[in-house]
Amino acid sequence: MPTRDIEGYPLSYAEAGTGAPLVLVHGTLGDQRVWAEQMQPFAAQYHVLSLSMRHTWPDTWREGGDFTIDRHVADVAAFIRALGTGPAYLCGHSRGGHIAFRVAERHPELVRALVLIEPGGEIDESLGGSPAPTGQQAGVFGEAAALVGKGEHEAGVRRIAEHTSGAGAWERRPKVRQMLSLDNATTLLGQIHEKRSRYSRAAAAKITAPTLLVIGAATQPGFKTVATALQGAIAHCERVDIPEATHSLIFDDPARVNASVLAFLARH
């Protein structure tokens, strides 16, 4: 698989198709393989590049303090610049949606259009959130990381699956997806120190790219809260709700997700 040197780190990615670049950013416990159901449909019209963020598969976790939101935002921005083709279409799921949001906020010149598929995180008071962070997400990730640190990898990733997709989520997942998560279990040891900021109205106002929010109709309430807040705060924003889909909507209903994304990109 190809790699590109990003500030001294060999960032691995999968690619397919030709044309304008479409960069895909995975979420927690993921890597470039999570977009398997999107690669070929998207590649029919775009040069699709699915990233593995630093320290995810095929690499391995190493201590070093660089598994942060800011580091990954800088990596995605540098990757787009290195393509040398101007602004790219940018799509992220869950934590990858948060990263994509920050790239569009901080580097608007690099983003032609933005797709946020259930972006992860919390909203601050300016978007109707609580005056202070709830700490719920940090607590869950801390519990999961503690289990992984003790060698209980499956218990740790199950905790994250249930937090994002409800009780029984881990058992409902096909084996291939379970193995993908287990391949990245040790990244939780870094993610608990990721320093993720809450979404704010001021940050959303800096996003100038046309934006699509894709949400699972059966997702957890927190993801709907974030989506509704961002929908009202990003200037040029559309939203699609995928019937019966959970937070795992790129796996639950890839056909509807793909059609929604492609229809949006065709207009921009």
How does this structure look, described?
This protein is α/β, with parallel strands linked by helices. The chain has a single domain, classed as Alpha/Beta hydrolase fold, catalytic domain (Rossmann fold). Strands 1-2-4-3-5-6-7-8 form an eight-stranded mixed β-sheet, sandwiched between helices. Helix 4 runs antiparallel to helix 5.
Distance between the termini: 30 Å
Structural class: alpha/beta
Largest β-sheet summary: 8 strands, mixed
Estimate the strand proportion: 15-25%
Runs in which pLDDT lies below 50 for 5 or more consecutive residues are none
- SSE string, helices as H and strands as E: EEEHEHEHEHHHHHHEHEHH
State the name of the first-level CATH class: Alpha Beta
Number of domains: 1
CA gyration radius, whole angstroms: 17 Å
* Apparent shape: globular
What's the oligomerization state?
Answer: single chain
The strand line-up of the biggest sheet is: 1-2-4-3-5-6-7-8
Count helical runs: 12
Superfamily at the CATH H level? Alpha/Beta hydrolase fold, catalytic domain
Provide the residue-averaged pLDDT: 94
**CATH architecture designation:** 3-Layer(aba) Sandwich
CATH topology: Rossmann fold
Annotation, overall tally of beta strands = 8
Fraction of residues in helix: 40-55%
